[in-house]
What does this fold into?
Amino acid sequence: QCPITLDYGVLLSFLDRLEIGMIKDGTAIGMGIASSVNRLKKSKAKSKIIILLTDGRNNTGKIDPETAANLARSMGIKIYTIGAGRPEGSLLPVDDPFFGKRYIRVPLDLDEEILTKIADISGGLYFRAESEIKLKEIYKKISEMEKTKIEVKEYTNYSELFTYFAFPGIILILLELILSNTLFRKIP
It folds into this structure.
């Protein structure tokens, strides 16, 4: 959904708009990798990587994960795969017509074999995250391994606000001069 950007505000706004059920249920790992490769193919960065975070197995899409991983390797892109989820599964919200919104436990269906294979094909690594803390550690480790210095042009748009204060200030000074010589005149 979000184009490649260093503007974290834009990324966070995209994340805020995400809702469960926005897209058809399923995991299209191959299509996700192919889409990412397409966005990265024109990048001039020394290190091009894709971080694939999933809690499922490839069960939809027109491109299989191995083909997509080979495509990434041919473009010089490493894929770091992360299998996320607790072994006991997770809670999924379901709208029940009789009981309203409730949560049901969904077992973890993670294909670690294909995630390892994707990482091996592309020259990346596979990680397993069973908690939020572990996921943060994984991202930190990837960040330490893959550092590329990039130059960013920043533009700042200034809006001069002094006029909002200058005109009332001038009016108050004139009002003080008029009143000090008329109504509030000082007698020596």
Notes: Residues 23 and 77 are 27 Å apart (CA to CA). The first helix runs from residue 8 to 16.
